[in-house]
Design a protein that fits this description.
CATH architecture of the largest domain in chain A: 2-Layer Sandwich
Number of helices of chain A: 9
Oligomer: homotetramer
Distance between the termini of chain A: 34 Å
Largest interface: A-C, 42 and 42 residues
CATH superfamily of the largest domain in chain A: Dihydrodipicolinate Reductase, domain 2
CATH class of the largest domain in chain A: Alpha Beta
């Protein structure tokens, strides 16, 4: 059994990680650290775990762990990593943005298995990708891999409220968020940097813009992203590229029908749908922001690092409704 | 024109009051006080007012007002009233719980027009009823008036999130409140006291229990309440009682179809539906918690105090969806 | 009083029209035709009208009307107009797509007051614009008017479920639509034709593409549209253009804060917000699809035709939550 | 491996059953019958299954099955059972109401494991309980078992929209159901009969009324039920009864905190919370209507029949948000 530690155990991504790891056949929760909840049962912070586990939050990380997941807010992981509280022998999967970019990665491998699976298998430290970044990259990687992104890409994506974390704020207030829609950080969202680095990794002459409009949706879980750009290829040619690219990636599937967010909520899947209209290739992708966009992908990375089947513990029942 | 002041102008009930008064043909917003927003345009706190009015929040109440609405949280109104910041000549409509109960009313009249219309017309100071209390009383007043509440009453009611105010908390977080349901303060909700006082006012031998289960609904506006108790009367007899009781009350209507919350959202209406099953008379009522349950009723009281038509400024378009 | 007839009175846009006209100080509902509901009270089809009006649906149009609103589905209005059931003397406002395009307008004026107000005042027959088309045009008209649309425009817009009408279908099923998001007719939505005709009307050298991704949102009312295109102008210059263009249009306002759908639900307003990022001017617009996007705009057109103040009966309380 | 057949495979409960069985370690989907979808892939009816399984719907039941789940609408199972299309050797789990009542059970055992586990283990044919009935019984069984239901019980319960099935209707329309609440069949819901039969089974002098107000909630999955009745016992005594009763039932847990629906969505758990107020014992229960209230419980019954661990394949990740 892989002995697992979690730091920052009271937040949304940690909660989802615990839900997944609880039923993972080859992992064992050893130490879940939360200073604010230290000494309390896990289900005090994550009430859906009531009846599932009797573990309590630790104040300090138990050192008898094989892997540590960092689930604190952005900007806090680097300090933890440097502080020495994590045993040298433990692998690290960081869910924050701190080590995602090449110039400041400090040896962390960017943990998108559909891009970097072989490197992940050899890695000790993983920078788990952002949720929007994951979904958008899934819609674009095969095109970059084929060297086909030679014009600007336009992306619209909508996300559920859990992406904004559990801290109650004006924009996560039910009375405001429900039956609403709004955009934020249009054309400047920080996930653009991750996305461009990955596209450049696959297509080294990539030099175009990615124009991205992020939208807040009136739902809790899931991301739908739509990317389009002009192409001379036929729809069939592009579909073939996508099928070939994802052939041996177990969580990504092509759909011949238009997609909706609900299809993947609760699962680690990414579904893609391709259309061609007016000379533009248009790729829709859907993922669960908390699973494939965060904690599920983190477990997928753990599986790869430890030589397990990539899908171990991740064949999850979808919510569907 | 009636010159209106509002104290506590940045909250939900104040916002709804402003929305109504903006279009009231015989009222004029003179001074909207909010210490936290002093000097800002009203639409900074109530962004839907953008384009509708250029008024700014005051730090202190302008004394040239005919009526003042108190929209602060419970427990704050009594201090304001005693502080002398409200001109002696001004009428007061308090939306808090501070003066609702007979033993501590300090001359405030309980402002439920369907119970106390004549007293309201003569009043200088109004204690505006609670939202649950308004809806539940509408389902029961005609029975009490006829002396028919001689056994325990059971009440279930569900409310929208705006009833909990605009402060972001764990139970108003979208990720939690959406697609959820929960109860709170079962059998002990403080509105029970208002309700029992009114029933006793109409039926002086009233001595039974009112068992009330308040529920939080996954919606923003509206209350649905269901009250039932045993009766020997036929459905028709009870319907006749209700029709007679509400005949000259312009906002309360009987429906011959089952009700839903959406029918009255955005309006000052109360709709009622009666059924008889297994010897029980069952009365469903729906109101908008922010309108008939708060700010609309406050304006209805203002209209009565100033001798206007009770419906002035309150013929509002329903939202319907 | 303007005597009003409505044909197709049981649908969503008709319901909203009735809600508005009920309280319009200078209009009187004379005849609401619905074959399916003939002889029933209006509130049987529109239960929120319970208590507001006692009118029943007609089987045939009463001929004593000054204006007739056509609220049937797309493709049905032309037949009605040609059938002679509408008195020759009556003005017509058609809410369908049947007469919106110049080549088949049959004398109908495209009823977007912010584009064609003077023509509308002289018109007998109005083709009321589409909901997406209205919102998107509001974000672009000042740019076209200034001749500034010289590159492709990219538009993302999300709409509430009432835009899909009241017929229950798989994609309007609550279990599917709630907590979901999806796109439809990407790059090919039929409102593009209206939009391009209007842009060409203002900027006769307009020849670029408008790329439009329509999204279904998990809410009932409202549209948010985001349009962007490259510009050399500064943000301030573009804001000046917008302010000048809409200066005497009472329902359109510029906001200096980012927008959300909720701000305008229930009203006939259009709010706009401008940003400039990475050389792109980005305009967000919000309207209520049933009001400014349909029935409110239809009444605005009626007001203009009959020489009333454009805002008569349209100063509506917003829902806000 | 247990070879599984499903009849009525395109509906909501069948979809949930497939989601569960897909990952069940000891069951294998052999034949999923749907006349309307015969020949199509399962994911055409259940799009969340895209990528998970390549099985197609059958027109007729494959006879090589060990157990058959009947997922058709109420009233259709009896005909199927009598028609002979199910092999004699196969066990049957019927999810409809057809065989739930003692006088017409035809040898079917009422499949509530928390009531009848030993009988279920010996059964060939199971009548799977109703969703409301399951949740309400969980709140009352220990009291009946202790002979403590000697006065009327009052129950309020709210359910998600999936309980109404996938057929689009006026009351499942998103534009109506969202942000709404309504009651239906108050005091007369047909699940009352199941509930009373079970209470009588445990407490043979049970002769009181159960007053039940069913409510439609603005959410898709889950039921919250609140039951209360007068009691002389202390809260601690009743908690002890509940703890003892459910001690060896793996899916039912007591919570010391108030409950919400979200805690159990996606799981087969039932959570219970007890309070005592004003002489009344008040029990809140939550389940997922599609899992513990339908298909999860059906699999739990299958596990018991085939001598598997009761939780096999049912340790499901909760949705939580």
């Amino acid at each position: 059994m892989i002995k697992v530690g979690v730091i920052g155990g009271a937040g949304y991504t940690a909660g989802e990680l615990l839900r997944i790891l609880l039923h993972h056949p080859k992992a064992e929760l050893k130490s879940v650290v939360s200073r604010s909840h230290s000494g309390e049962f896990l289900y005090k912070a994550h009430p859906d775990l009531n009846g599932d586990i009797d573990l309590k939050f630790d104040a300090e990380l138990n050192q008898d762990v094989d892997v540590v997941f960092l689930c604190m807010g952005h900007g806090n992981s680097r300090g933890i990593v440097e502080s020495g509280v994590i045993p040298e022998s433990a692998k690290i999967v960081d869910l924050s943005t701190d080590f995602r970019h090449k110039e400041s990665s400090n040896g962390f491998v960017y943990g998108l298995p559909e891009l970097n699976r072989e490197d992940i298998k050899e890695a000790d430290k993983i920078a788990n990708p952002g949720c929007f970044a994951t979904c958008i990259q899934l819609t674009l990687l095969p095109l970059a891999d084929a060297g086909l992104i030679n014009q600007d890409v336009h992306v619209t994506a909508i996300t559920g409220s859990t992406g904004a974390g559990q801290n109650p704020t004006a924009t996560t207030h039910f009375s405001w968020r429900s039956h609403n829609a709004s955009i934020y950080k249009p054309l400047t969202h920080r996930h653009l940097k991750e996305i461009k680095e990955s596209l450049t990794q696959l297509q080294d002459d990539f030099s175009n813009q990615v124009h991205f409009i992020p939208m807040r949706g009136a739902f809790t879980r899931g991301i739908l992203a739509v990317s389009y750009l002009p192409t001379d290829k036929s729809l069939e040619e592009v579909q073939d590229l996508f099928e070939a690219y994802y052939a041996d990636h177990p969580f990504v599937h092509l759909s011949d029908e238009p997609l909706d967010v609900k299809q993947i909520v609760g699962t680690n899947k990414g579904l893609l749908h391709l259309q061609k209209e007016n000379g533009q290739i248009l790729i829709t992708g859907v993922i669960d922001n908390l699973v494939k966009g965060a904690s599920g992908q983190a477990v997928q990375n753990m599986n790869l690092i430890f030589g397990l089947d990539e899908t171990e513990g991740l064949t999850l029942k979808s919510t569907a409704f």
